[in-house]
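Operator note (shift B, R.M.): manual run for RidA family protein requested after the automated queue skipped it. Running by hand, logging everything below so the morning shift can see what happened. Input copied straight from the record, untouched. If output looks odd, do not overwrite the archive copy; leave it for review.
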Amino acid sequence: MRIMNEIPPANGVRLIRSTDLAPVAEYAYAAVAESPVSAIWTAGACPLDAEGNTVAIGDYAGQAEQVMRNLVTALESAGASLADVVKTTVYVASSSQADLVAAWQVVRDHMGEHDAPSTLLGVSVLGYDDQLVEVEAVAVLIEEPVTPQG
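Run finished. Output pasted below as returned.
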């Protein structure tokens, strides 16, 4: 396997692309977390405001914006950021590719240069009334090695 565009580690996460796979994806095909790490799994971030109301009803991009704000908040509460993410899964309640792309573009914009591996799925329904988008993430924090006292 030939590796192209191996992104230097950011926070201990190496993003990897292979010349044996199509270069059209707007994300790395793999991520490697250097050891030792602490892993963080988020619940699906939903398009809810602080009162628990679904926002941007009928607007895929608008909901994706709120989802990403909520995801950042969840990651920050665990001591992480989007730069620590090694994998996302994006759920969009639609069978229309255009709707998936609208949500994906917002996620992609928030991830910036840290284009961690991701899976984008069209699903029939999500958990909250009028919910169209949900994103879950896995992140890692590199732990400082413990030096034995001696």
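Quick read of the result: The helical segments are 60-77, 97-111. The first strand starts at residue 3 and ends at 10.
Leaving this for review. - R.M.
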